[in-house]
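Table S5 (text form). Sequence records supplied for joint modeling of the three-component complex.
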Amino acid sequence: MTATGQAADTASTTQTRLQVDDLSVRFHTDDGDICAVDGLSFDLGAREVLALVGESGCGKSVTATAILGLLPDAAEMTSGRIVLDGTDLAGLSRSQLRALRGSKIGMVFQEPMTSLNPVFTVGRQIGEVLTRHLGHRKRQAREVAVELLDRVGIPAPRQRISEYPHQLSGGMRQRVMIAMAIACNPSVLIADEPTTALDVTIQAGILDIMRSLRSDLGTSIILITHDLGVVADIADRVVIMYAGRKIEQAPVEQLFSQPQHPYTMGLLGAVPRPGMAAMMHGADRRLAEIPGRVPVMTAPASDCSFHPRCPRAADRCRSLRPELEGRGHDHRVACFYPGEEGGAQ
Amino acid sequence: MTPVLEVTDLVKHFRVRSGLGDSTAVVRAVDGVSLRIDRGEVLGLVGESGSGKSTVAKCIMRLIEPTSGTVRLNGTDITGLSRRQFRALRREVHMVFQDPYSSLNPRMTCGQIAEEPLRHHRIGRRVARSERVGDLFEKVGLNPQMRARYPHELSGGQRQRVGLARALAVEPSLLIADEPISALDVSVQASIVNLLLELQQDMGFSCLFVAHDLAAVEFVSDRIAVMYLGKIVETTDRQRLFAEPRMPYTQALLSAVPVPDPVEQRQRERILLPGEMPSPINPPSGCSFRTRCPIAEPQCAEAEPLLAEVDGDAHLAACHLIGPAGEAPKIRSTVERAPPP
Amino acid sequence: MAVDPSARVDPGSLEPRVAVPGKGRSRRAQVWRRFRRNKTALVGLTCVVLFVLAALFAPVLAPFTYNQNFFEAVLAPPGGEHLMGTDDLGRDIYSRVLHGARVSMQAAVMATVLAMVVSLPLGLVAGYYRGAIDSVIMRLVDALLAFPFIILAIALAAILGPSLMNVTIALGVGSVPSLIRIIRGEVLGLREEDYVDGAIASGATDVSVLSRHIVPNLMNTLLVQATVMIPGNIIGEATLSYLGLGVQLPRPSWGVMLNAAQQNLSSGPWMLVFPGAAICIATLAFNLFGDGVRDVLDPKTHR
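The corresponding structure-token record, covering 989 residues in total, follows.
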């Protein structure tokens, strides 16, 4: 942990908790190789909520599993460095990684039912995390588990603790998952579509808990989602992914007010906003579409992988790969013709 | 003019075995739903999971038999018909399903799937039917050559288009769309919503659009009905529902949907509801929403509020706390936003 | 349509979750490609093919007929003119094993087909209509399942009397109860699929729903079941024949040959070894092949 001291020299607000550098993941499938993630880099600051946004197949969940060291057997990390609080995860043994998961990195998945063990009570499952990582005694673990359930907004935690996962509703299970994930006060929480399976009124509560984790415990959060409403609600910074590559990154206000990549613009236009329909009549009532489909990358892209669907595609886009370039403060985009005007700069 | 669909007091109770032994419990999935859809109208039926909205859809299709109540399709009560009698009437109504993967038979080609209604209703000869399927494919934005493909070769959005082609093959007067976009990616959702609106305007069918996604419901619907625990709690036209929601649940639901705009979203007043929807096995007495309602009063536990006019017959809501002139009960925002770090 | 259709053909949609770069291949070709990668299953398939060929062409392949006695060479050890030796009546064991394959395959395959033919309609009706008819069928099935398969088959064979036909019937009927249960379970799941609702909404009759939507989607399950049942029936036939309830003399069956070998264990152990090995290899081959088929076809292991 020598690097932490060096990182602590910089101001605490810009301190980097997690750094992902040039991450590439390849899947070996029956039908050949697939580049799921290609050269992805980002960093996560303290108390920051970073949203990884993209449609299915863009590589956002693969990125999460790669960070957690939980890639399936068919996947291979072909390049990349993942540094958590100054520790390079590549240098760790399997058991060290296992110890890290749950203590320094917490994780919350989309479907809490499959992540909870149906034959143990909620209290026992949270307690196990505490005894394994923090060496708590049984009684102590129980008390802490009650506190944790209380903290994630579960009413009557003393009763709930002896219930089994199937006795809880989806929203409650997700809260239990969060309680388990934060049991050891991790510095980074990875939440993969944590509210996708939940109703909106339940989702609002879960997002509030994540917000309070950030403000009360100082947890940094990587939020993986496709829901731009959720992003607008909670994220500080946004990374937009397409076909395994980062194509745009910006602070949240800026991304929504001045999207630079045509794909980002397309995504923003594809979601209906309140009051939108009232202003559109007859055949004009249409949402923006992005024609075509996400390509499956069998090799790293040598051109702009969005070009077949892009209204601005030119010869350059078909032969060269645009690299990320700065467009204003902390705003980067990989496009030859970015912005409103298509890059008339 | 007779409405295309008129549902009156629809009830569907499921019997389930509860616990060990032979004791059974009754799940009140749908508990007295009435709604009507006029010709060419799109009614959005919105509710959270467990509200019974999909059960309403399946009862109208008679894919499940309602416990009681009537469903009139173009004036004919279909609940009294035998299965055989109703089969002929099935031309008038068809359905698009949520899951683009399980809604198409993997053993049939897309052309055979879209042709099925034509075949069963004995419309046209083989050649004519095949031509009609080609037209249908173009209508839903698929290359007619895709008729020979099997569903597994298609993407989710394309499959949903095949589902639409099947549903519209016999030009029904009512299309029931049960969460047709919720399993799709954002950019595909947009294209299916556009297609649905375009076809609706072109062919003029009425549509029951069932969804949990309020933004999408707002975008496609003329009128919206909000369901909670097996009952409709508020119904009115699109503008009014979003501008002046009366029922506290509707207010909370609208406030919970995040707006895809960080500046606006972070300034909105939100009503955070405690707890979750109660079980339809043991619904609360009186108003079914009172257990989560931030402003519930003792009277709410005593009598069930009926769906009543709050602003002429165009706006109905079920709440004891609505003022005598139809004014919405005031709910103070129950959440303080955490200050930014 | 106001919009030019050609502009809207094949529009925005995303790749399904499982990415298949070389798309457009037929389902059958994909299944075969997946199967081919499984080496043990390929070995199984090869043996199965050899056994089937042996059974089909036994009269051509066998150097002698199955009941030709070589009295000058009674209990001759393997080698020389008689590849697998001769039995206590001087008959060529190699020829008898080949003819035994014929009997064995015939009984196993026919019994499996018979079981399918009987079970399919019952399982379909029970699973699709549920209710009272389901209860009646399933109670009967439960009652029959109380007896182990082989006991049921022995009882049936004993009642019907010994013959190849009766062995086939006994084995087939013996596996009906468990097969009905499997088919019913599968139908219960299939009728909940949205495409069945879609067909009903399209005005399909029950017959049409069953024949066009349910049965075609049952095929994988039935095929997988067949690969499990055939080796079971090979052993079943051998067992019944060994007990004297099967094929009648002088026709050779592996079971009958084992029975004869029992009396000559010390003087002609090869009488035991070759038919025994044939049973082992045949069932093993079918099981290996079946495992491979299950891996590529079973809806539960592959979606």
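Note: Confidence is low (pLDDT under 50) at residues 1-13 of chain A.
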